[in-house]
Structures are given as C-alpha cells and as structure tokens.
Design goal:
This protein has 352 residues and is α/β, with parallel strands linked by helices. It is built from 12 helices and 12 strands. Helix content is 39%, strand content 21%. Helix 8 runs parallel beside helix 9, helix 10 packs antiparallel against helix 11 and helix 11 packs across helix 12.
Length: 352
C-alpha cells in the first residue's frame, strides 16, 4: 500500500504529522509512506508548486494523504505558480472528479456550532462535489476593453458526461445512506446549471429508490442553516460545493473537523485510488504554533483506509476514537477549548 504524503504549506505539515502518527499507531502491515513537496513549499525548493517528481510520486501511489496548500507570500506570483495550482493540478491530472465531504454532528459539540444546539444536533449530510470541471477549469483571462476598462473573465461549463459521472456517484452514495439526493444548482439563471439539472434527472431514472430533489444554491445556503437535518446527500458542482462545504463545516462546529476524499475512476488493488485532505486550508495565521485541529486530517486518513484500502474496521476505529476524544471534551481553540495539535493527537491515539 503505497501512500504519498504531501503535507504542503501552513498548518498542513502539523496536522498531517498527526494523521501519519495515527496510521503508524494502527500498525497496518504493508503500508509504505513516501513524502513529497507540494504548494508554496515546493515552489521555494523546486520553482513549481507541483514539481514533476511530486506528480510522478502521486501517480505511482495507491492513495495520497494531502495536507494543505496556500501561502500569502506567493500571492504576487503568476497564477500557474501559486500554491493552489498544486491541488487543482493533482485533481485534474489524476482524474479525481468526485469529492466526498461528509459533515455530521459529533456528540458533545452541539454547543460549538454556529447554529442552535437542537438544530445542529440533526446534521448528518454528505456533500458530493464535482471536482474536475465548472468555472474552476474553464478558460480564463484578463483583457482591456476598447474603452480602456480592465476585465477579468472565467468560463463556466459542464459537458453532459461530466455531470453524468458525478451524478452516479451522488445517487450511489444516497442509496447507501438515507436514500435522499438533493441536487444544487442555479438553473434559474445559468445554462450550465440547466444542463446539470436535466442530466441529473436523466440519471435519476436508474435509481428509482432514491428520492431526488433540486434546489437553487442560494436557497440551499439558507436551508443549510435553517434545517440542515433535512439534507442527506447534496450533489453539486465545483464552485457551489466549495462554498457550501465551508458553510457546512461551521454548522458542525469547526472547519477543523471536515475531512474529504477525492476519487476518480481508477482502481488500485484494494479499492479506489484517491486523494484525502482536510477541507480547511493552510491557515497561515496559526501555522507553526501547534494550535491547529488535526482531527480533519485524521478523519481524512480514515476515509483513505475505507475507500482506497477496504479497511473499514480500521477506519471505524479511527472515527470512534475521534468521537470519544471530542465527547471527552478534548478540543482546541477552534471549538472553544485549549488543547493543542499534539495534545489532541495524543488523546486520540490513547483512545484508539
Ligand atoms: C477546497 C479549497 C480549494 C478549492 C482551493 C485551495 C483551491 O478551497 O478544497 O475547498 O477551492 O477547491
Ligand atoms: Mg474550499
């Protein structure tokens, strides 16, 4: 089981180290870890945020454990050299089109949510976000108009096959959960969204046992704080999924708790090849201070064991230990506590 560990920038290395420590504590036979440079750290060392050797390592691995990329010191670089291009490049180069972002309330954290505790307690949803298309990967540019004004532009588009394959992921996920799929778009304004909706309805014919609904993204943002318990699987495009998943994280208490899996069509010997990362970014404001919550990174490692290595029992053990750690009140500043990164990591391993 070859795992590429790409820790990246900011708090990426701190939280990834705790995730690796958890994997090591499990003593899984046959697991080999390789470390590679990515993001701003890679730019400084190799002149590129996703150097060829890192990409090769990622391609040769069975799974990738990813930290975070993003560094304000790189804001002035040409876009193709910015740290964020590393994660976008990996998603695209490896064909990782399906991003799973589960958000559920942990016992004991109801009070940490930005929502009322009784509302927060109902949250158990999965955002299925398309990851290889949309305005993220369309043509883009800046130009000067005839009258001298500068204009920035980004092309939004989805081809039907791109919608179809992510829709299948959403429907299958819903089948394995509560059987409800809510597709989120902006079909009242965008042609891209109208096609999205039409194709999702077509795919839905293959899944008669899944209850399909559609919601405009502005309404979805509202319902996510009004009645989040009504959602089971939320299927959406790249841009809307980016936004709604950050919003969902605050509904469960902290962005430091949300893990993600990015999957493609490729299989390894055990399961699906994938990239696993906490949804939080590099958080440069708290980097290097030992304050970051490592639980999203640790939960990402659990998702890796489940999806890429068919080790459901080990994944369950990690998730149970995280739930116990939180139930015991061990949490950091993001949740109103005072435990640091390594304290949380240790508490979590003690409970494994
Ligand atoms: C995420 C992040 C990335 C995204 C950035 C770092 C490019 O916000 O994974 O949600 O926009 O997809
Ligand atoms: Mg994001």
């Amino acid at each position: 089981m070859k795992i590429a560990v790409l820790a990246g920038d900011g708090i990426g290395p701190e939280v990834t180290a705790e995730a690796v420590a958890v994997l090591e504590a499990l003593r899984l036979p046959g697991m080999v870890l390789f470390e590679g440079d990515v993001g701003g750290a890679a730019y400084r060392r190799h002149g590129h945020p996703l150097p060829p050797e890192t990409l090769e390592m990622a391609k040769a691995s069975d799974a990738i454990l990813f930290g975070a990329v993003g560094d304000p010191a790189c804001d002035g670089l040409d876009r193709h050299l910015r740290p964020e291009q590393a994660i976008l490049g990996l998603r695209k180069e490896l064909g990782l089109f399906a991003n799973l972002r589960p958000a559920r309330m942990f016992n004991g954290l109801e009070g940490a949510s930005a929502l009322r505790p009784e509302v927060a307690a109902t949250i158990d949803l999965l955002i299925v976000r398309e990851l290889n298309g949309d305005v993220y990967f369309g043509e883009k540019g800046t130009r000067t108009l005839e009258d001298g004004r500068r204009q920035g532009w980004d092309m939004m588009s989805y081809a039907e096959d791109e919608v179809r394959r992510i829709a299948h992921v959403g429907f299958r996920a819903a089948k394995g959960r509560k059987g409800r799929l809510c597709s989120v778009d902006k079909a009242n304004v965008l042609e891209t969204s109208q096609l999205w909706r039409d194709v999702v309805i077509e795919v839905g014919a293959d899944y008669p046992d899944v209850a399909l609904s559609h919601m405009y993204v502005d309404n979805a943002a509202m319902q996510l704080v009004r009645d989040p318990g009504a959602f089971d699987v939320v299927l959406t495009g790249n841009l809307f999924g980016d936004i709604l998943s950050d919003q969902a994280s605050m509904c469960v208490g902290s962005i430091g708790l949300l893990a993600s899996a990015s999957l493609g069509a490729e299989q390894n010997q055990w399961g699906t090849r994938g990239l696993y990362e906490p949804i939080h970014g590099s958080a440069p404001d708290i980097a290097g201070q030992g304050k970051a919550n490592p639980l999203a990174a640790i939960l990402s490692a659990a998702m890796m064991l489940r999806h890429s290595f068919a080790m459901d029992a080990a994944a369950d053990r990690i998730e149970t230990a995280v739930a116990r750690t939180l139930a015991d009140g061990v949490f950091g500043a993001d949740l109103g506590g005072n435990a640091g990164t390594s304290t949380i990591g240790q508490a979590m391993r003690d409970r494994l």
